[in-house]
Amino acid sequence: MDRTNSTLKVLEAKAEKQLSWAAIAEHVGAAEVWVTTALLGQATMSPEQAAKAGEILGLDQEVAVSLTIPPFRGGAIQMPPTEPALYRLYEIIMVYGPAFKEILNEKFGDGIMSAIDYEMSIEKKEDPKGDRVIVTLNGKFLPYRKF
Amino acid sequence: MDRTNSTLKVLEAKAEKQLSWAAIAEHVGAAEVWVTTALLGQATMSPEQAAKAGEILGLDQEVAVSLTIPPFRGGAIQMPPTEPALYRLYEIIMVYGPAFKEILNEKFGDGIMSAIDYEMSIEKKEDPKGDRVIVTLNGKFLPYRKF
Amino acid sequence: MDRTNSTLKVLEAKAEKQLSWAAIAEHVGAAEVWVTTALLGQATMSPEQAAKAGEILGLDQEVAVSLTIPPFRGGAIQMPPTEPALYRLYEIIMVYGPAFKEILNEKFGDGIMSAIDYEMSIEKKEDPKGDRVIVTLNGKFLPYRKF
Amino acid sequence: MDRTNSTLKVLEAKAEKQLSWAAIAEHVGAAEVWVTTALLGQATMSPEQAAKAGEILGLDQEVAVSLTIPPFRGGAIQMPPTEPALYRLYEIIMVYGPAFKEILNEKFGDGIMSAIDYEMSIEKKEDPKGDRVIVTLNGKFLPYRKF
Amino acid sequence: MDRTNSTLKVLEAKAEKQLSWAAIAEHVGAAEVWVTTALLGQATMSPEQAAKAGEILGLDQEVAVSLTIPPFRGGAIQMPPTEPALYRLYEIIMVYGPAFKEILNEKFGDGIMSAIDYEMSIEKKEDPKGDRVIVTLNGKFLPYRKF
Amino acid sequence: MDRTNSTLKVLEAKAEKQLSWAAIAEHVGAAEVWVTTALLGQATMSPEQAAKAGEILGLDQEVAVSLTIPPFRGGAIQMPPTEPALYRLYEIIMVYGPAFKEILNEKFGDGIMSAIDYEMSIEKKEDPKGDRVIVTLNGKFLPYRKF
Amino acid sequence: MDRTNSTLKVLEAKAEKQLSWAAIAEHVGAAEVWVTTALLGQATMSPEQAAKAGEILGLDQEVAVSLTIPPFRGGAIQMPPTEPALYRLYEIIMVYGPAFKEILNEKFGDGIMSAIDYEMSIEKKEDPKGDRVIVTLNGKFLPYRKF
Amino acid sequence: MDRTNSTLKVLEAKAEKQLSWAAIAEHVGAAEVWVTTALLGQATMSPEQAAKAGEILGLDQEVAVSLTIPPFRGGAIQMPPTEPALYRLYEIIMVYGPAFKEILNEKFGDGIMSAIDYEMSIEKKEDPKGDRVIVTLNGKFLPYRKF
Amino acid sequence: MDRTNSTLKVLEAKAEKQLSWAAIAEHVGAAEVWVTTALLGQATMSPEQAAKAGEILGLDQEVAVSLTIPPFRGGAIQMPPTEPALYRLYEIIMVYGPAFKEILNEKFGDGIMSAIDYEMSIEKKEDPKGDRVIVTLNGKFLPYRKF
Amino acid sequence: MDRTNSTLKVLEAKAEKQLSWAAIAEHVGAAEVWVTTALLGQATMSPEQAAKAGEILGLDQEVAVSLTIPPFRGGAIQMPPTEPALYRLYEIIMVYGPAFKEILNEKFGDGIMSAIDYEMSIEKKEDPKGDRVIVTLNGKFLPYRKF
C-alpha cells in the first residue's frame, strides 16, 4: 500500500473514531508534530510506533507496515502553497529570510540549520488581545565542511 | 533613494565599522531580527529608530529617511531559495506543513498564524553534540471571519 | 468524504432542486458570498449551518459533516485564472495594485488588509448604460508589528 | 521619456514636496485611486490633467507629456505578488473566486465584470476593534455576445 | 453532467452521425464559430439553441441542459499551445502584438478590443498559389474609464 | 546598432515629429500593420523601405541599416501578456482556439494557417453602440506533408 | 476512440505481433518516420493508409478510423524532455540554434524552415569508431511575407 | 573579456567588413555551422583557428583569446524560442520526437545520438515549388552502459 | 504492460518477499545501482537479466518482458526534487557545479562527462563521527567534436 | 565588494597570470574542488586561506576580504543548467535518483547524504577506450531525527 492511500486510511480512521492528533501522539509516545507528520506520510515510524498507531486507529496490518517505510517526502503540497495557513510560512521566508541568514552567519558562522536533525513544536499561548501561535524550530547547526 | 540602494549603503557601513547586527539592534533599541529585517529593506522604522540606526552606522540623511518608508517586500530573494540555509526553511514547509495545518486547526480552529502581527527570534543553544539553532515564530492567531 | 466530492454533491443537489445561491444563503442564515464560498469548499460551516445547508439541499449526513471541517483552501482554480470573469480580477491587481499599496500605506500606515478577518459582497447596480457589478472588499487593517 | 523613468520622477517630486496622493488627486481633479494609478504609469491622463499634475509636482514638460501616452500596463509588479499587501488580494481571488463566478452568473447571466469600464475606491472605516479597509470595485457587466 | 463529459458526448455524437460543424450550426441557427465554441464547452447556449443542438446530435436531455450553464472557460488547452495550428496564433501575438497595441491606441485611443462583446469568423479564400485562411476578429472597442 | 536600440530611436523620432503610424506607412509604401511591425523590430525592410522610413523619421544611417537585418523575433513582450489590450488576444486563443482548430480541419483538412506567409489589418468600424475593432488575419493554409 | 487510447492499442498490437516500425511502414507504403509518427498520434493517415495499418496490426475498425482524424499534436511529451535521447535534440537547439538562424538568413533571406511542409529521416551509418545516427530534416523555406 | 562581449565584437566586425559566415568559415578552415557556432560563443576554437578568425575579422587580441576558452553554453536563447525560425525546430521535437525515440531504439538499441560527438550542416536545395532547407544532424550513437 | 505498472509489480514483489536490492542485484549478476535503476524503470535489461529478475521476484512473464524494452526515462521524479535525499544532489549541482565545469575543462579540455557511458556506485563508509555516504560517478569524457 | 565582482576579479587575475586551479589550490593548501568553489563565490575561506589566494593571484585587499564572508549560494547557474557539462549531472539525478534513494534507505535507514558536511573530488582516469571522469561525492549520512 502506498503512502497516499495509507494517509487516507489514517484520516478516515481518525475521523471515524473522533480522535485528536494529540491523543494519537500520546498513545504512540512521541511528539504531536512528529506523529502527525508520520501519519501524513512525511516521516518513518518504528515498528513499535506503527503498531501503537495501528492499535488506537484500528488500522489494517498493511497500513501499519506502510508507516515504517521511508516515504518519498514533499509531494503532499504544491509550492507556493495555496492554503493561507501555509502561505504565511512561505511569506515569512521571503520577508525574514535575509535577516535569518545574516544572523545565522553572525552567531554560528557559515552553515545551515538542519532540517533533518530537526524537531519542532506548535503551541498555543493565550492572550487577551488574541491568542498567539508559538512555533519553535529546533535544528542542529551544521557548519560547512572545508576540504 | 530606493530601498535596494539604501540596503547596500547599510551593508557597506556595517562592514566598514565592523558592527554586528546584535550591536546595531541594541543601539536602535529593538529586537535583533526586526532591526536586521528593517535594515535589509523588509520593515519600516520610526524616525527615531532610523535616526539611531543612522547614528551608529554613520548613514546619510537620505538613507536614514528611506528606512522610514514602507518597503515593497519580498523581492530580496528568489523562490525556491537557492541558498541552502534558506532552502532548509522552505523544505520544512513541504515536510511539516501538512502537520502544521492539522494541528493549528485542532488547537485553534479554522484560521491562520499571522505573518503581520508577528515576531520571531533566532537563538543559539549550545549542545556538546552540536549547537542547535532555535527559531521561535510567534504570530497572532487570526480566525476566519464568518459573514 | 473529501471536500472535492462534497462540492460535487452540493452542485448536483443545487441543480436538481433548482435553488439559487441566494435562496440557500437565506436558509442557512449567512451572507450569500460566504455561504457560496463554504459550499464550494473554501470556508468552514458551524454544525448548525451545515445542518441548514443539508436540509435545504437534501444532503447526506456525510456531506454535511464534511462542510464543518476546515478545508485546504485555494486549490479550486489555477493561477493565472483562465476563466475571463476571474482573470479580470487578476488583471485589476496588476494594473491597480501599485496604487492600492501606495494609498493603503498613506491612509493606514505600514500593513495589510486582512484576507482572513474579511468579508465581501457582490451587488448589481442597475444602470441604463449597462448594469454594474459592485464588489465590496472589507478587511481589517493589520499594522506590521514592530518587535 | 519612458513611463518607468517618468514614474521615478513623479515619486521623487512627491517625496521632495511631501505631497499626499490625496492632495495631488484633488489638484488634478479626479479620483485618488485613478490619479495614483496614472502617476504610477498604469493609466493615461488628458493633457489638462497632466498639466495639473505637472504643476503641483513641479515636473518637467517631458515628464508631463509622457503621462498622456497610453502605457504598456501590468509590468510594474511580478505575479504572484511578493508584497504581502498585494498578495492578500491575490489570495482573495483563489479563495473567493469560485463563489464570485457563481454569483455573477446567477445575478447577471454569462459574462464578466469589466476591468476597463471600471473604477475603484479605497476607504478607511474606523472601528474600535481595528480599522477596516473598504475597497469598492465597480465595473460594468459585459454579457458574452452570441453570434 | 459537467462540461468536459458533455463535450465528449457531443464529439461522439457528431462522429457517429457524421455531421459537420457547419451543418450543426445551421440547424442551431447561429454562427459556425460560436456554435462550435459552445459545443466545445466555451460558451453558453439558450435553452432553444441547446434543444436544437440536442435534436440534430441526438443528445440526452442531461447533456443538452449542461450546454445552457455558463462554463468555466479556458481550461481546454494548455498555453503555450503545443498544437501547431494554435501555436501559430500565439506566435502572431508575439510578433504582431506590439504593432497591434500601437495602432489600436492611435486609431481608437487608450483601451482594448473586447473579447466578450466579440465575434469571429473563419473563412476559406481560394487562391491558385494556395488557399488562404481568413480569420476576422470583431470586438467592441472599450475605452479605459477615467474616474 | 541592435534592434532594441533602433526601436527606441524610431519611437523617439516618431514622437518628436508627431507622426502617425499611418503616415509613416503611407510614406514607406506598405501596409500600416507591417510597417509598424518592422519599425518595432519584428520584420525586415528592404533597403528602399528603410531609406523611406529613415527619410520621414530623420533616422541616422546606422538605424536605417539595422531595419534591413532579419531580427530575432518575439522578445518584445512577455507571455502571457500583462497589457490588457494584448491579453484579450491571448484569451481569444484559449476560448476560441478549440473551435478554430475544428473548423480549420473541417474546411481545409489537416494543416495550419501560416504565420509567415501571413498578413493582417486592423480597422475601425464605427457603430453607434460603440465602435468596433476589426482585425483580419490572412494566412496561407499549409497542409501537413505526408512522406 | 481518442488518440491516446488508439496509440496504446497500436503499441500493444505491435508488441504482440512483434512487428518493427520498418515493417509496418513498408506495408502502409510510406516513410518510416511518418508512419511511426502517425501511429503515435501526431499525423493523419488517409483511409487507405489506415486500412493498411489496421490490416498488418490487426486493429479494430474504431482504432483505424481514429488514425484518419487530425490529432491535437504535441501533447505526447513534456518539454524540456526528460528522456535523454530527446533532450539531446533540445540541447542542439540551444547550442546550435543561434548559428542555424544566422546561416538560414544568410542563405535564404528572412524566413523559416517549415515544420509542416516537412519530412525527415533517421538513418544508421556504420562506423568502426562507433555507428552514427544521421537525421535529415527537410523543410520548405518560407520567406516572410511583406504586405 | 567574457563571451557575450566577444560575440558582440564579432558581430560588429562582421557587419562592418560585410563578410558572410561562409567566407569567414572558409578562411578559418572549418565547417560553416561550426565556425558560426564558435563565433557566437557556443564552441571553442584552437589558437590557430582563433588567429585566423581574428585576422579576417580584424579582432583585438583579447577577443581572439576569448574564443579559445570553453564557453558556458546554452544561455544565448530562451526556451521555448520566441523566434519563429528556432521555434519550428522545437516543434519538430514535440511532433516527431516520439517517433525518433522509437526508431532510434529499433535501429540502434537503447541509447542516444550524441550532441557532443556531433556535427551538422545546413544546405539549400533549390526546388521550383519552393527551395528547401536540408539540415543534417550527424551524431555518434552512444549505447547505455550496463554495469 | 507499461513501465509504471511494471515498477509497481516489482516493488510489491520485493516487499512481499522481503528482498534487498543488494540480494536482487547479486542474483541478476550486475551492479546494485544499475539493477535497481532498471527495476525502477530507468534502464533496459537483457532477456537473461530480466529472466533472473523475474525468477527471484516471482514476476509474471509480461512484467519480465517489459524490463527488456527501452524505457522513456526521467519521468519518475519532479524537478526540483521535493524529497530531501534527492534535493541535496540537486543543491550540489548549484553549489559545486561551477567548479566542476572549471576543473573538467582544465583537466580534460572542452567536453562533458557522459551520462550514458556511465556507471555509479553508492557505498557506506563507517566513521565514528557519523557514517559517510560515498557516491562515485564514473563517466567517459566526451570531447566536443570540431567539424 | 560583493561576491559577483570578486569572482570576476579572481577570474581575470587567474587568466592574466595563467594559473591553473590546481596550482592555486596547492598554494592555498586545500582541495582543488573546494578552493575553486570558494573562489567562484560558493564557499567561505578563512583569513589565512584568503591571504594565500590573494598572494598567488595578486588580489586587492578588498577582494581578499570578500572571500571570507559567507556567500549567498546557488545563484551562479540557472536550473535546469543549459551548459551540457552541468546538464549531464542534472540528468543523472532524474535517471539514477530513484535508485539512489532506495539504496540509501536500504543501507543507512531513513535520512540523507549531507550537502554541508560534504566534500568531493574530480579525477581523471586514463583509459585507452577514452579517459574517464571520476567524481566522488562524500557526505555524512544524517538520519532523520524522531521526536
UniProtKB/TrEMBL annotation, chains A, B, C, D, E, F, G, H, I, J:
It catalyses: cyanate + hydrogencarbonate + 3 H(+) = NH4(+) + 2 CO2. Gene3D superfamilies: Cyanate lyase, C-terminal domain, lambda repressor-like DNA-binding domains. Its EC number is 4.2.1.104. Pfam families: Cyanate_lyase, CYNS_N. The keyword Calcium does not apply. GO terms for molecular function: cyanate hydratase activity; DNA binding. Residues 75-147 form the Cyanate lyase C-terminal domain. The keyword Lyase applies. The active site is at 88, 91, 114. It comes from the Bacteria. Keywords: Lyase. Catalyzes the reaction of cyanate with bicarbonate to produce ammonia and carbon dioxide. Belongs to the cyanase family. PANTHER family: CYANATE HYDRATASE (PTHR34186:SF2). This is Cyanate hydratase. The lineage of its organism: Bacteria, Bacillati, Bacillota, Bacilli, Bacillales.
